[in-house]
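Quick one: structure for this chain?
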Amino acid sequence: MKRVLLAGFNARFTHSNLALRYLRQSCNHLPLEILLHEYSINQPLLEVLAHINDLKPHFILLSVYIWNSKMVAYLLPELKKLLPSMKIILGGPEVSYNPQDWLSRFPTIDHIVCGPGERAVPALLQDACSEKIVTVPPPAFKDIPFPYIDADFPQLDKHYIYYESSRGCLFRCSYCLSSRSDLPVEFRPLPLVFEELSFLLRQNPRIIKFIDRTFNADSQRARTIWHWIMQQKVRHTVFHFEIHPELITAEDLALLQQVPDGLFQFEIGIQSTNPPTLKAIRRTQHFPRIAETIASIRNMKTIHLHTDLIAGLPYEDFDTFSRSFNQVYQLQASQLQLGFLKMLPGTFMAESAVQYGIKALSSPPYEVLETKWLSPEELDALRDIESMVDMYHNSGAFVYSLEAIVEKSSSPFHAFELLAVASKSENVNNLRRDWQKNAALLMYVIKENWPEDVNFFLDCLRWDWCHQAKSHYYPPLINSESLAKAKHDGVKELLNYKAGSGGVLLGADTIPRATINRAIYFRPTSPLFMARFALDDAIYCCYVQDNSFKAFPLITFAMPHA
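Got it. Here's what it folds into:
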């Protein structure tokens, strides 16, 4: 029996390849041994080659995207050295729109499948198609087999589980491959969606990520799926959706009010608020309506919000982009992803590069280098700002300090610009997980710009540390004798609280002794900090219980600090 290897190359451990699973299920009726293996783009080339050689496949199908095309390009010249009779078949968006280029560079390729492969791949595996470039219309989306099987899930533990209930997009944004007119919008029947989601939930995944381009394109259908999910009483799975906020209705908001905390995540692509830019990219949106909807969802405090911006779009210069940034930042989403335009082959934007004076990388990821409106230096500055947004805002590790810096600055954009300039001068790289080094950079910016408020900002940093440290010590940068005394006095005061076999009773909560042992003690030193964040002059016992931060005032002082 001939052996087929479906090979994927993922950018991160949490990622998985959905396309290959669709193909496997589309071919499982054939008299073939079908293997699916996912590699990492960071694996050594020789290690990958050795594994493929050990499998000795008769066919290898490689799924090619912008994040793995370099790895595939390294592999292609070597594969037939080891397995000269093996047929090499490529598919995926990175080869679908420039197949001739790939064939000219890599003559060892036997076939390239352009577009969906649910019909094309079975034909190739049965030698029913001899063309080098193969384009076969797929079946209706409703007839394509469900991609997952039980045997997948031991390997998918802690990975994102990707799922699509629709294909195509109602919108025609010029930078997106989903804007192509040859990609129709199709919806999977709801009974089938519920059957498939039931299967996935039985696997107890951490995240089910819907990859529908606009999940709420049909509001009633979206509500029906949301309502079904809520009825399942899910405890450990998060559902991620890409939504368009202008399509959210009053009925949607009424339903979303009932969503349990942490069950849903919404990703909202805004990209720009500059009217000429929106017109050029064929995107219609009304920002006041978007802002109103996002505010309504944010005020529910149960749904994680993630907003997107794209730098390098037509008609957006440094100043207009800073305005877009400020408007989107002020929506107060949990995360703001600042991305950069990619000139993807097959998109209208790529075809309009000369018109817009856009210069981009010639190979993946095709990222913008210059436009008529943004110089290379300005785009580099925006990349530095993106790094600061990731470090300080998206990490969630500097909520109070960042809020204070933004208020002190002329705008949110200016605040991140100050951090970006300082990171260059101090040679600080993006160390998102190194809280202490990032805090040191923040203090450098504070001392350079607001030296009179150092004590206020030290309290902000200490309070941020208390929220995420889960330990009883302070880093040297923010430690002080007053905090040591607060700990001494706080521990002493705790002895006066009722203790039992279950722990210590603080207010209405019984705190396990192990949690108390990890607690951290905080006393603010700045009257400005106390007024700004509505805290008393008190010694607070800070701890995490049931995944929530708690701060219990053990001692409240009537007199100011000594």
